[in-house]
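Sample entry was shown:
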Amino acid sequence: MHSYTKLAKSAVEQYVKSRQVLDLPDYLPAELTRQQACYVYLFEKPGRRIRASYGQPLPRTRSLAQEIITNTITALAACRYRCVRRPELTSIVYTIAVLEPLQRISHESQLDPEKFGLFIRSDRGKSSVLLPQRAGIETAQDQVATVLRESGINLRHETAVMYRFAVAYYD
């Protein structure tokens, strides 16, 4: 298990057992001290059915470690899916998607749905994010159409800025 997923697992176990947020460990590997955005996914095994997820395209804390903990707790607290309970802790598997910094792009030709995610933000405050390798998204045109639809951005009435980003997944 990667150190990122170990941290998420520890955060889940602490929160489910005591409703307390995990403190940052005293020692952090260098890669966990960088400021970086991430998404946290909790899946149930067998079958990898999603139980919780949360993330942001821009970091909101000062370190990746804090970002993982914060996003893990937010995912659990939101409970969009069936909440994780103590007897289920051994059946949960974790994936952490770590985002590279956003790169502003001017055209969809700069996208590749297998390599890059897409973040779009309009001048009216609407936004959407789409991570790479999403099922059913095969072309850059699919990526753009999906984020526009999910965000409710209408390019006839508002201006939008697109950003791409690479993602590394850790299980």
